[in-house]
């Protein structure tokens, strides 16, 4: 049966790395006999500039019938980030209950880590980020704008159901990996939400006796990512903590251009969305030098979720071989290839 994939390249290097992902997907599909159909949507800041909307009013309904969504990145100077993100990215995550943001980070052969003494295989961390609630709430506002009394208020929302389901996903992932889990917290701060987070995570731990877990304060945990990354395996974190940690774990492995993500609706009732962790990178857009690996690894996660394990591991192997050689990796990871050269190598490696 044909699997339908919605493709939203977005803005800046989102367009460049999504084009790389499409080229590689065609090669993987041909090699493994996959029946995939693609439909591309021009939803972006460029579209906003013309129509005043990031996606059409029925955008979510349009996506509803797809088996997966592949996204580049959205955001561009001239359109406020809160407009581009609340106009596309966040509504998709929420409408489709993509409550897990699965963000792996690994050190690869050939790619130098900025951390001393860290080599290939030393970092293998999975950040499980809560993806629909927490600090990213719509409740709050700006008050008294322009006055001396000006203020901004943001309410964080944590629900028992929301914490439970992301904790269950993280404990299950930890059980299938090394059996170790760290929960990021800030229960020593003057906040009401984190003691509740801790309590719910602790209650879920009882269902996973094989997993050894502990809570760590987010500040100390961030330091640990730099000082002792090999000691970490699965980290479960709230929306904002997980956002910050996943750029940090990516940077620790060499570049945020490597990092992949899957916004998962684990029940499969709605489409999941796959996207690199990085943004539209206006500072390098248009130069053809963006690292496509974050997008390509996201395709690996998509293939796994669509049930194509063999194709996924074939593609991951091709990505690893490209990273191993400076001639087929980009400048941000110490290579001298451009986006096109990496793409061509990976497409040939999976197609050959
Ligand atoms: P960014 O991730 O776009 O860039 C941060 C730095 O990393 C830049 O120096 C950039 O050149 C570099 N970088 C990022 N991806 C790279 C790659 N693949 N190869 C090589 N270098 C890479 O983050 P930012 O600058 O904070 O945000 C830029 C825009 O992207 C903003 O509008 C932001 O809101 C948006 N954004 C969107 C998403 C998304 O749609 N999922 C994610 C993050 C940021
Ligand atoms: C990410 C991004 C988004 C997030 C922004 C652009 C809203 O940084 O996917 O990591 O914070 O979720
Ligand atoms: Mn982020």
What does this structure look like?
There is one protein chain. With 352 residues, the chain is of the alpha/beta class. The protein has two domains: 1-107 and 259-352, Isopropylmalate Dehydrogenase (3-Layer(aba) Sandwich), CATH 3.40.718.10; 124-252, Isopropylmalate Dehydrogenase. Helix content is 41%, strand content 19%. It contains eleven helices and twelve strands. The protein has helices at 13-32, 45-51, 59-64, 81-95, 160-176, 193-205, 218-227, 239-252, 293-305, 309-324, 339-351, and strands at residues 3-10, 36-40, 68-73, 100-106, 124-130, 140-143, 151-154, 180-185, 212-217, 234-237, 260-264, 272-276. The strands form two sheets. The chain has a ten-stranded mixed sheet with strand order 2-1-3-12-11-4-5-10-8-9, with helices on both faces. Strands 6-7 form a two-stranded antiparallel ribbon. A hairpin with a 7-residue loop joins strand 6 (140-143) and strand 7. Helix 1 (13-32) crosses helix 10 (309-324). 48% of the residues are buried. Bound molecules: nicotinamide-adenine-dinucleotide, 3-isopropylmalic acid (IPM) and manganese (II) ion. 3-isopropylmalic acid (IPM) binds next to helix 4.
């Amino acid at each position: 049966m044909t699997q339908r994939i919605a493709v939203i390249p977005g803005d800046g290097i989102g367009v460049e790395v999504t084009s790389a992902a499409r080229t590689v997907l065609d090669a993987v599909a041909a090699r493994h006999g996959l029946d995939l159909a693609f439909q591309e949507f021009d939803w972006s800041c460029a579209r906003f500039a013309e129509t005043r909307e990031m996606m059409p009013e029925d955008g979510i309904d349009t996506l509803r019938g797809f088996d997966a969504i592949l996204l580049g990145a959205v955001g561009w100077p001239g359109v406020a980030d809160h407009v581009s993100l609340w106009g596309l990215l966040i509504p998709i995550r929420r409408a489709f209950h993509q409550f897990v943001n699965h963000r792996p980070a690994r050190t690869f052969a050939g790619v130098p880590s900025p951390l001393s003494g860290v080599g290939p295989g030393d970092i293998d961390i999975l950040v499980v980020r809560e993806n629909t609630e927490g600090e990213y709430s719509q409740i709050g506002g700006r008050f008294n704008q322009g006055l001396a009394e000006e203020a901004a208020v943001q309410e964080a929302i944590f629900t028992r159901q929301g914490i439970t389901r992301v904790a269950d996903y993280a404990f299950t992932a930890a059980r299938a990996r090394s059996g170790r889990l760290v929960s990021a917290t800030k229960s020593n701060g003057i906040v009401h939400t984190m003691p509740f987070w801790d309590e719910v995570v602790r209650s879920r731990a009882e269902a996973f006796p094989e997993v050894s877990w502990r809570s760590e304060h987010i500040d100390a945990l961030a330091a640990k990512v730099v000082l002792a990354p090999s000691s970490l395996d699965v980290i479960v974190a709230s929306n904002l903590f997980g956002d910050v940690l996943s750029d940090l774990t990516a940077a620790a492995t060499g570049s945020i251009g490597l990092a992949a993500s899957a916004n998962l609706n684990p029940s499969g009732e709605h489409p999941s969305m796959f996207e690199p962790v990085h943004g539209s990178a206006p500072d390098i857009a248009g130069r053809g030098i963006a690292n496509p690996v974050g997008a390509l690894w996201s395709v690996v996660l998509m293939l796994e979720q669509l049930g194509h394990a063999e194709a996924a591991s074939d593609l991951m192997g091709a990505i690893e071989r490209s990273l191993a050689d400076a001639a087929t990796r980009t400048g941000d990871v110490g290579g001298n290839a451009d986006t096109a050269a990496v793409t061509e190598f990976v497409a040939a490696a999976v197609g050959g």
